[in-house]
Write a structure and sequence with these properties.
alpha/beta; two-stranded antiparallel ribbon; eight-stranded mixed beta sheet; Rossmann fold
């Protein structure tokens, strides 16, 4: 992560998503039995999260990536959705992949750290697979404050947390790399549950629900937050 001269938080990995990378990202979640099963489970968890959030009537999907959650978000017929992403190429791939939603989903190129929307613009911010890329607490606070500003009611966010087998295994592997003196250029991070839940509270959120991808085994956890 670096700070640009205009003081906007920037995640370096996001620069890789040109058209070719965006199309590859779209394909990879549809390839192989394992990825299809993982996507099915992630959609199942997200559907439960939306119900816990009160089936919001307007949703900001940020980052929307190649639109893989759009069919889920469109299950609610009267829901309005803004599909937003830092990458214009991601948005182009999403629009091409789901032409049936062209009149129902508005797309927006913007940063999650400085969302180009008015205060309380949507009922819910839906943020899947971003927060685990943000290793610094200061950057996470900025992100959460921005979500607090944009939402009227709730936020749904997924990230990697500790307290499970995969997180324990990851720590062991990282310790071995460090012992061998190997460089470990991380762009994904495991966050302690107590730490992130404290950051939610500091940003002005209460926790409505905690949904684990596979309890006790996987690092993925989805939180449903309510704005105070």
């Amino acid at each position: 992560m670096t700070d640009h001269p205009d003081d906007k938080v920037h995640l370096a990995f996001s620069d890789k998503y040109d058209r070719a990378h965006a199309e590859s990202y779209f394909r990879k979640h549809r390839q192989g039995w394992g990825r299809r099963l993982s996507t099915w489970r992630e959609v199942q968890v997200a559907r439960r999260a939306l119900r816990l959030a009160g089936s919001p009537g307007s949703v900001l999907d940020l980052p929307c990536g190649a639109g893989r959650f759009w069919p889920l978000l469109m299950e609610e017929g009267k829901r309005t959705v803004i599909g937003a992403d830092y990458s214009a190429d991601m948005l182009a791939v999403a629009r091409a992949a789901y032409p049936e939603f062209s009149g129902r989903i508005r797309t927006l190129q913007t940063s999650a750290f400085a969302v180009d929307l008015a205060d309380e613009a949507v009922a819910c911010v839906f943020c899947m697979r971003l927060l685990h890329h943000v290793g610094g607490a200061a950057a996470r606070r900025r992100l959460l404050r921005e979500f607090h500003r944009v939402t009227r009611e709730t936020v749904i966010v997924s990230l990697w947390v500790d307290g499970n087998y995969k997180a324990w295994r990851r720590r062991r592997l990282e310790a071995r790399r460090q012992a061998r003196g190997e460089a470990d250029p991380q762009n994904r991070f495991v966050i302690a549950r107590e730490q992130i839940e404290g950051e939610f509270a500091q940003a002005g959120f209460d926790i409505l629900g905690r949904l684990d991808f596979l309890p006790g085994y996987q690092m993925w956890r989805t939180y449903v937050l309510r704005k105070r």
